Amino acid sequence: MHPRIALVTGAARGIGRAIAQRLAADGCRVVLTDTDEGAGREAAEATGSAAEFLPCDVADETQVRALCHTVQQRHGRIDVLVNNAGITRDAVIWKMSSADFDRVIAVNLKGAWLLCREVAPVMRAQNDGRIINIASRGWLGNFGQSNYGPSKGGLVSLTRVLALELGRHNVLVNAVAPGAIDTPMLQAMEPAARERLREAQPTRCFGEPGDVAHAVSFLADPRTRFITGQTIYVDGGKSIGAGV
Ligand code: NAI
After folding, report:
1. What strands, in cross-sheet order, belong to the sheet with 80-83?
2. Which ligand 1 atom sits closest to the C-alpha of 138?
3. Nearest residue CA, atom 19 of ligand 1?
4. CB-CB neighbours of 52 under 10 Å
5. 148 catalytic per annotation
6. CA 204 to centroid of ligand 1, rounded, Å
7. Residue 167's domain is classified under what CATH number?
8. Which of 8, 87, 109 maximizes ligand 1 atoms within 8 Å of its Cβ, making it the mutation to test the pocket?
9. How many domains does the chain have?
């Protein structure tokens, strides 16, 4: 039995790093990729001997092609793709530049699309594969995110379309939509605002990167074979939408 090859984007830190570590613990050989080469190499080292780092800006078509080509050449297959790289550039729409709209769409949506386009033929030929897109609960709508929300909504739609196109080839495509996860972004919030946010979670607590990685691990597991086109919320119930 060959080792399963997993490719995780935006894996230098945060949720992507936790996903890479979890997939390695699950027995995958993991290729971490990121624009941050220093942190990416360090994350791969921390993940262990079954991990390696390759740099790539997911918004750059040439770099994405080269990355997938290298992984194919080295390993001969790609079993799991996790599109995790993502950015925010928040502002209310009347203060948002079109450059900030374009960059968020380019990384969060087109970046995932570019990776999927390279990996889909590989997985089709294998008649086996798992694609997991890291969306966000924010696709349902957050104030100040008229770029990020549509980028993640687009990712949910891309997930559904590719599930239709690839299902007959035994390639399952799902999304994970995290809510408030305790990452440096959240830790940098002013304490009173952070407390209000915590109180707004039905579970009254924040998630950890490992909670997102756990959902990814489940979707990537070969025993998960009849779930596709779905979005799993890892958000403490925030997406239920009812008031406190
Ligand atoms: P983070 O900012 O800590 O890490 C993102 C990683 O992606 C960084 O290492 C960064 O260098 C990399 N990256 C950025 N642009 C890139 C590009 N063009 N090409 C390749 N790599 C690139 O973010 P975090 O919090 O770990 O989020 C990971 C994913 O989870 C993102 O897609 C984010 O939108 C999503 N998410 C995060 C939530 C949170 O509470 N942290 C909530 C909901 C969704």
Report:
1. 51-55, 29-34, 5-9, 80-83, 129-134, 171-178, 231-234
2. 43
3. 57
4. 18
5. yes
6. 24
7. 3.40.50.720
8. 87
9. 1
Phi, psi of 89, deg, nearest 5: -145, 75
Distance CA 63, CA 229 (A): 27
Give Cβ neighbours of residue 10 (< 8 Å, ≥ 6 apart): 16, 33, 34, 58, 84, 85, 86
Q: How far apart are CA 84 and CA 140, in angstroms?
A: 18
Residue nearest to atom 34 of ligand 1 (CA): 86
The two tokens of residue 16 are 């992507």
Residue by residue, pLDDT tens for the chain (244 residues) are 789 999 999 999 999 999 999 999 999 999 999 999 999 999 999 999 999 999 999 999 999 999 999 999 999 999 999 999 999 999 999 999 999 999 999 999 999 999 999 999 999 999 999 999 999 999 999 999 999 999 999 999 999 999 999 999 999 999 999 999 999 878 888 999 999 999 999 999 999 999 999 999 999 999 999 999 999 999 999 999 865 4
Question: Catalytic pick from 148, 154, 155, 173?
Answer: 148
Burial class (CB in 10 A: 0-12, 13-18, 19+), 210: middle
For residue 15, which atom of ligand 1 is closest to its CA?
Answer: 26
Which of 7, 32, 33, 35 to mutate for ligand 1's pocket (most ligand atoms within 8 Å of CB)?
A: 35
3-class secondary-structure state, position 3: coil
**Domain around 144:** 5-240
Spatial CB neighbours of 154, under 8 Å, sequence gap ≥ 6: 105, 108, 109
